[in-house]
Amino acid sequence: MKRKKTVHSAQCAVHSKQKPCEECVDPGKKESCEKCEEYLQGWKRALADYENLKRDLDRVRSENRERIKTDLAFSLLPVVDNFEVAVGHVPDLSGCDEATQKPIQVWLQGVTFIKKQFEDVFAQLGIEAIDASGQLDLNLHEVVEEHEDKGRKDDEIIEVRSNGWKMGDRVLRPAKVIINKLNI
Predict the structure, then answer these.
(1) Name one GO cellular component term (predicted).
(2) DSSP character for 26?
(3) What letters, b where the CB count within 10 A reaches 16 and e where it falls short, cover 23-36?
(4) 25 with 40: CB under 8 angstroms?
(5) I want to staple 152 with a disulfide (CB 3.0 to 4.6 A). Which of 40, 80, 167, 180 is the partner?
(6) What are phi and psi for residue 158, nearest 5 degrees?
(7) Mean residue pLDDT across the chain
(8) What is the C-alpha to C-alpha distance for residues 86 and 164, in angstroms, rounded to an integer?
(9) Strand partners, 142
(10) What are the Cα distances from residue 118, in Å, to 13, 161, 162, 166?
């Protein structure tokens, strides 16, 4: 009669609800139960190592996603800026006849639509324009020029030269602004 070999692992009855291995049942073989315990501890360590590896890989993936989004934003910011400039320089068409005005207006609508698409993509990526109204915040704004106007508050933003952008709490690029500075 052949005897089946038993595997000493987490299936030992001392440590689980499985059927006990023959060696663990035999009280004279205390070593085999210790061996089962050793295997069980090794298995638990391996499982813990695997869980730590999964957690580390998730963290690295998340960091990579954020880095890629940031790199994409930095690449697209000049394009969005150029669309802003293009839309801001709409020619005066009042002196043109309707046949000339119509194609230019259609072209301008297309440019405006493309700019809107870029802004929508930014919104999906969690990138938003920095509010550049009100008082100066050096964390969000970069002063490029100062003017003196006694009718305004000190450090009040007068004009935005270039939009600023942020992703969550991280500033990608500060807004370039002109501020009111009393007593220049």
Answers:
(1) cytoplasm
(2) -
(3) bbeeeeeeebbebb
(4) no
(5) 180
(6) -95, -45
(7) 83
(8) 18
(9) 176
(10) 63, 19, 16, 15
